[in-house]
Structures are given as structure tokens and as C-alpha cells.
Amino acid sequence: MKKIKVVIDDMNFYVVGNEDEKYIRSLAGELDKNIKEVKRNNYRLNQMQAVLLASLNVLDRAEKNKKILNEVQNISKDEKKLMGVIEELEESKKSNNEATEKYRAEFKKNRELADEINALKEENKNLISDINQKKLDIKLLKEDLENQEKSKKKLHDTIYENQKQIIELSRRIENLTNED
């Protein structure tokens, strides 16, 4: 235990304790300063009234500091909660980024497949057009073949008729020759 002499409002006091001397003197100096400030602002107060009012001011500041400390501690607790929420959000963001990358990759694949499908559709359209053209060509060829067949039949019929006429003419010639 130490015995430390301090001066507060021009009065000597001895403070007994285990605290650091510098710390005790700084507290006494702060209290002395507060009492003198109260006296300066309220010159009608006696020494006891000034000490009481200064003590009240010190207690008021101490209470306000306690409230601030409680708020800071609450903020600190809230900050820990907030940090937890931030970590969860970061994890969620990371998960969302991964999902977005997967979605983009799938979207790219789907786009490529859609492009392939469109190309196949175009190719299919061209093939159908070619098939329709071939069908038309076949139809025209069939019509031409039918016309050729009809012409051939007419020619056969004409040949047959001509042969009949030749035979008939040959008989006449023979008959004429035989008559001579």
C-alpha cells in the first residue's frame, strides 16, 4: 500500500492504495480542474457546493461513458453477429457465383445445341426442298415416259397399219403380175 499526496482545490489529501502514483495524480488533477471550472462558471458557489457540483458533473460523465461503453459492447456483439452474417453472405455469394458459372456453361451448351438444331433444321429444309424438286422431276419424267409410251404405241399402230397396207399392196402387185 502506498500513500500518495495530492492537491485538490487547494486542499491536501493523502490517497492510500496500490494504484500507480502517476495514475492517482492524474485523477486528482482532473478533479481539481473540474472543481475550478465549476467555480469559474458559478462564482457564487462556496467550496463545498463547487465540489458537489463538480462531483455531480464527474458522475454524469461517468454514467454517460458507461452508456457509451454499453452501446460499444452491444455494437461489438452486433458486430460479431454482423460478421457471422457477412460470412454467410460471402459463402452465399460464392455459392451463387458457382451456380452462375454452371448456369452460364449450361446456357452456352444450350445455345450451341440450339445453333446445331437450327443448322439441322435448315439442312432438313433444304433436303425437303431437294426431295420436292426430285418428286417434281420424277413426275415430269413419268409424264414424259407416258407420252413416249403413247408415241411408241402410235408408232407401232402406224407401223402395223403400214405393214398391212404393204401386204395388201404386195398382194395386189402379185395379182397384177399374175394376171399378165
Automatic annotation (TrEMBL):
InterPro entries: Bac_CellDiv_Activator (IPR053712), Cell_div_ZapA-like (IPR007838), Cell_div_ZapA-like_sf (IPR036192). GO terms for biological process: cell division. The keyword Oxidoreductase does not apply. Residues 82-179 form a coiled coil. Keywords: Cell cycle, Cell division, Coiled coil. The keyword Cell cycle applies. It comes from the Bacteria. SUPFAM superfamilies: Cell division protein ZapA-like. This is Cell division protein ZapA. It comes from Peptoniphilus duerdenii ATCC BAA-1640. The gene is zapA.
